[in-house]
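About this split. The held-out portion is used to measure sequence recovery: a designer receives only the structure tokens and must propose an amino acid at every position. Recovery is the fraction of positions where the proposal matches the reference. Here is one held-out target exactly as it appears in the evaluation file.
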């Protein structure tokens, strides 16, 4: 009787749904420590009630057509039934933030989508990566069944340090590199070390929303500093702050490169105030015109810069592979904080990435996709000029997107966006970049963000033609 009643309750509450299997009589008898005949009698009773049925191939299951009495009752509006005590009021959550808008699974598929930060999936080095994964698994030994260093796989950290010396001029040791699940986890590590409630934290305006959301979620008081053609306006920086988050190589989302004069001024401000600089260098792998300026970390002689990099744009965001380079004063605490978060990144992807970098495969891959992305950027600039005439386009010297300022006579960025979606063309305004505008920006409703790597030249030509029709029709 008890067994039958418990199953009735599970069905009535919707825990056992129609057509879900129930344990065999032998398995349930072993679990409950009763005779198999006892379970069989309970099942026979429920089969007679129409609650269970038996199929030779599927075993015993909940009937697909339940009697009306067993449909799950709707809960009362108060959340408590008659005679049932009301639940205690829970304490409010300590976390009050939200996540950046990067997930694309629920977004409508657009044939001509200028989505930001989206590499071309056809350029993923699939055959090489497959080979590296297979080789690493074959040599894994105990690596897959034991804990590793929370800071990451040492050969990968060493390969990243060597890459940064050559590509960005940063002199760092493998011991200062921490492997993270993309830039977002790196930002969380930084905030965990440096940000407490009410602490002043500087961000660019507009800025990458993933950074501002992380800093504010830890209680940081965001101080928004405007951006112009030379990057963040250093002369507007406050007299004191815990840190300043900047994107010097290709400011997100407006695109300017932080000038060398301002880089030195920013480092001087850091020295005078004691603030740390957080350098997000996510787009530095893609530079199309001239030599890239040295990273802030390469110019920093005082050890006040935290460098964040990622393979999300150069290889693919699905790998969740990034890295943070901490100065000597922070590295011990950063590794401890990483251990508390997840005790280290998965070994297999790290081992494959380490070989990819050390063998020269990553550099060859970068050279190939740089050439292709440059062709697409040139096509986009040419088509914008052909259909709209001389117009302002910022951030074209590098990165994976441009900020296009709509010409006179065209509707607002939001109106253009809505018109074009009906034709399968996706363009992006500042608020949905994913960027965050913390203080009003002059002409922000006239700025369109266009990511071009995932569109072929033919698709770019078609899309810009549709953009011209939407602007002037």
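Reference sequence for scoring:
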């Amino acid at each position: 009787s008890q067994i039958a009643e418990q199953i009735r309750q599970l069905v009535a509450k919707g825990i056992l749904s129609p057509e879900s299997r129930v344990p065999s009589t032998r398995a349930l008898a072993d679990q409950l420590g009763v005779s198999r005949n006892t379970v069989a009698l309970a099942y026979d009773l429920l089969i007679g009630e129409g609650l269970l049925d038996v199929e030779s191939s599927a075993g015993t299951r909940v009937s697909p057509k339940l009697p009306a009495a067993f449909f799950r009752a709707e809960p009362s509006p108060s959340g408590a039934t008659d005679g049932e005590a009301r639940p205690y009021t829970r304490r409010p959550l300590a976390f009050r933030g939200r996540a950046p808008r990067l997930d694309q699974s629920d977004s409508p598929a657009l044939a001509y989508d200028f989505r930001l930060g989206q590499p071309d999936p056809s350029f993923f080095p699939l055959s090489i990566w497959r080979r590296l994964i297979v080789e690493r698994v074959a040599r894994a030994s105990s690596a897959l069944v034991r804990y590793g260093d929370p800071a990451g796989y040492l050969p990968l950290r060493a390969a990243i340090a060597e890459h940064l010396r050559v590509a960005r001029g940063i002199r760092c040791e493998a011991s200062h590199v921490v492997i993270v699940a993309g830039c977002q986890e790196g930002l969380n590590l930084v905030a965990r070390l440096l940000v407490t409630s009410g602490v002043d934290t500087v961000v660019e305006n507009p800025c990458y929303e993933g950074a501002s959301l992380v800093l504010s979620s830890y209680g940081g008081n965001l101080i928004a500093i405007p951006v112009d053609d030379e990057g963040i306006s250093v002369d507007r920086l406050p007299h004191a702050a815990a840190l300043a988050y900047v994107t010097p190589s290709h400011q997100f989302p407006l695109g300017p490169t932080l000038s060398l004069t301002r880089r030195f001024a920013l480092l001087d401000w850091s020295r005078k105030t004691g603030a740390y600089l957080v350098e997000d260098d996510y787009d530095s792998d893609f530079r199309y015109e001239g030599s890239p300026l040295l990273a802030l970390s390469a110019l920093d002689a005082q050890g006040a810069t935290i460098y964040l990099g990622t393979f999300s744009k150069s290889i693919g965001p699905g790998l969740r592979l990034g890295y943070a380079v901490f100065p000597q004063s922070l590295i011990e605490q950063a590794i401890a904080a990483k251990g508390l978060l997840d005790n280290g990144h998965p070994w297999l992807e790290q081992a494959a990435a380490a070989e990819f970098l050390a063998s020269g495969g990553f550099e060859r891959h970068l050279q190939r996709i740089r050439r292709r992305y440059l062709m697409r950027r040139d096509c986009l600039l040419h088509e914008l000029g052909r259909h709209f005439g001389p117009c302002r386009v910022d951030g074209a010297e590098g990165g994976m997107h441009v900020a296009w300022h709509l010409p006179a006579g065209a509707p607002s960025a939001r109106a253009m966006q809505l018109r074009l979606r009906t034709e399968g063309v996706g363009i992006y305004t500042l608020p949905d970049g994913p960027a965050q505008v913390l203080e009003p920006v002059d002409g922000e409703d006239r700025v369109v963000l266009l990511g071009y790597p995932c569109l072929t030249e033919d698709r770019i030509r078609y899309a810009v033609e549709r953009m011209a029709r939407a602007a002037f029709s």
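Annotator remark: The CA atoms of residues 179 and 323 lie 4 Å apart.
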